[in-house]
Amino acid sequence: MRTTITLPSELVNELLDLTGAKNKTKAVLGAVEDEIMRKKREKVIDMAGKIRFMNGIEKNRANDRRLGRK
């Protein structure tokens, strides 16, 4: 998707220097991908302690045909 945005040149130049990207598009794309990954990682970390696992899952797995058992 083509998008036009206005960014401070100092930030873009610093991003280019830090990332070593060959052009502005690659630098900004990398920064966007990194931010998305960071947000996803934060969501996973926030789930810590909120997920409970069932006891006896080994028994269920032992009978699971999808895993080639029984």
3D structure, described in words:
It is a single chain. The chain is mostly helical. Helix content is 57%, strand content 0%. The protein is built from 3 helices and no strands. The model has no long low-confidence stretch (mean pLDDT 87). The termini are far apart. α1 packs across α2. The radius of gyration is 22 Å and the shape is elongated.
Tell me the β content. Answer: under 5%
- Domain count: the total is 1
The total count of helices amounts to 3
Which stretches are poorly predicted, pLDDT < 50 over at least 5 residues? none
* SSE pattern, N- to C-terminal: HHH
Overall outline? elongated
- CA gyration radius, whole angstroms: 22 Å
Number of strands: 0
The secondary structure category is: mainly alpha
Q: Give the biggest beta sheet.
A: none
Distance between the termini: 49 Å
Helix content: 55-70%
- Mean pLDDT, to the nearest integer, reads 87
Architecture blueprint of SSEs:
Blueprint: H1 9-19, H2 24-46, H3 57-62
Helix pairs in contact: 1-2
Question: What would a concise description of this structure say?
Answer:
With 70 residues, this protein is mainly alpha-helical. Helix content is 57%, strand content 0%.
